[in-house]
Design a protein that fits this description.
Radius of gyration: 20 Å
Number of domains: 2
Strand order of the largest sheet: 4-5-16-13-14-15
Distance between the termini: 29 Å
Largest sheet: 6 strands, mixed
Number of strands: 18
Shape: globular
CATH topology of the largest domain: Rossmann fold
Oligomer: single chain
CATH class of the largest domain: Alpha Beta
Number of helices: 14
Length: about 425
């Protein structure tokens, strides 16, 4: 890649407001002992969009990058005509993440998790001799697998065995990518637990999830795409959430764009949604509780099995901590909504008919809640609305192609032995 100067930024502890230097892979502020996110404070306060740059790296001023990687993917925003007409909306903008060549969208994994992967991997040090660990319900793993494979970055993935159908690719991966799984009946939280056991080995380091500024700021490029296309900050932001990280990222990007000074002073109302009956954040929000309500593990697993949008099944999301989803919703006068599988299926069919492309169950949940809010009269039809289609175009991307599936090298019980896990995952990379 061409010569690249690392992005200049410092970190801020959300809870305390203290600003400090990034030690390289800082995920927490050592001076504060309660749960809090840290944010990036970029040296450049006005965003430059580098149209000459590949993919989402055109937003590199607001990405915590140490290096440039091979990247040709970015969110694409366009003004809807078909869906807008069907819903009676005057200013509906769709930010599409996936494969939609007619609109210039080229994410071959068909998920906005590529925004995370390209940003997180650009934050990694090329000289690092440790192995990156990512736990996922499926789509995040697929994105990181592609990016790490393309750029020869060693990676250990942890994905539930029930979700392995998400691990498809249009070509074989580099051997630097390895996959482990928790047995059938396990969910995303079980995959996280398994990855945490692996991380007790000094050979590995954690990607960090929502705590990683690169993950959130990569996801925030959806909002940067929308605002620089529209020319103003939208009134509403609709997205389905599993962890809420995308919505947190949207809020953070919104604040940076206000500080930029060229796009208005509007705070988008964050309208996020879950797939019923898996509703831990919805239930907490309805109870006006910062803390998540008790949720029996076995019931949570059963509910996760029931929903079509498997990627929305995080039992321990960053909802309560300082700077998390609860704070984002309170700051933006947002709301958590819900839709079921049937409502999502109808919404997906409407999107296909009006916009001409297939979408995944998760964004179909978001669209279903937008439809419901319109029907209830809760949305001003002249408002500027950003609908974040987080994944789509899979049928188009895979049409006529023989798919290659990444298989797990190891499958562990739901309550695995730590020493056994460490010994076996270390052996994968020796």
């Amino acid at each position: 890649m061409a010569q690249f100067t690392p992005t200049q930024y410092e970190l801020i502890c959300v809870a305390t407001g203290e600003q400090f230097a990034d030690a390289g892979w800082t995920l927490d502020y050592a001076g504060y002992d309660k749960p809090s996110l840290v944010r990036a404070a970029y040296a450049k306060k006005q965003l430059t969009v580098y149209d000459d740059q590949q993919g989402l790296y055109k937003f590199r001023d607001w990405l915590p990058m140490k290096r440039m990687l091979k990247c040709d993917a970015a969110p694409v925003t366009y003004r809807s005509e078909g869906l807008a007409k069907a819903l009676g909306l005057e200013n509906l903008y769709i930010t599409f993440n996936g494969y939609f060549p007619e609109r210039g969208a080229k994410m071959m994994t068909c998920s906005f998790k590529e925004t995370e992967a390209y940003s997180v991997c650009a934050r990694t040090d090329a000289a690092c001799d440790k192995i990156l660990v990512v736990a996922s319900a499926g789509n995040t793993a697929r994105a990181f697998a592609k990016v790490c494979s393309d750029n020869n970055i060693p990676l250990l993935l942890s994905v539930p065995e029930d979700n392995l159908n998400a691990m498809w690719f249009t070509e074989p991966l580099n051997d630097c990518v390895k996959l482990i799984s928790c047995r059938k009946g396990g969910d995303y939280f079980d995959a996280i637990h398994l990855s945490n056991l692996a991380l007790t080995s000094p050979m590995f380091y954690a990607e960090g999830g929502a705590k990683n500024i690169a993950r959130r700021d990569g996801m925030a490029t959806t909002v940067l795409s929308a605002v620089t296309t529209i020319g103003r900050i939208p009134d509403y932001y609709f997205q389905a959430v599993g962890s809420g990280t995308g919505a947190i990222a949207a809020w953070e990007a919104n604040m940076r764009l206000i500080e930029d000074g060229r796009y208005g002073e509007n705070l988008m109302r964050l309208m996020v949604s879950q797939n019923a009956p898996f509703l831990p954040m919805y239930d907490a929000w309805r109870a006006d509780s910062r803390a998540l309500l008790p949720y029996d593990d076995n019931q949570a697993r059963r509910d996760a099995e029931t929903i079509d949008a498997k990627v929305l099944s995080n039992r321990k999301p960053p909802y309560s901590l300082a700077g998390g989803l609860y704070d984002a919703l309170k700051a933006t006068n947002g709301d958590i909504l819900m839709a079921d599988n049937l409502q999502a299926a109808k919404a997906a069919e409407l999107f296909l008919q009006t916009e001409g492309i297939d979408i995944h169950p998760a964004p179909a949940i978001a669209l279903a809640t937008l439809i419901a809010e319109i029907e209830k009269g809760n949305i001003d039809k002249s408002a500027t609305i950003m609908l974040n289609i987080t994944s789509g175009g899979e049928k188009r991307a895979t049409e006529g192609k023989e798919l290659w599936y990444l298989k797990p090298s190891l499958v562990f019980d739901l309550d695995p032995n730590q020493e056994d896990v460490v010994a076996k995952v270390e052996a994968l990379f020796k």
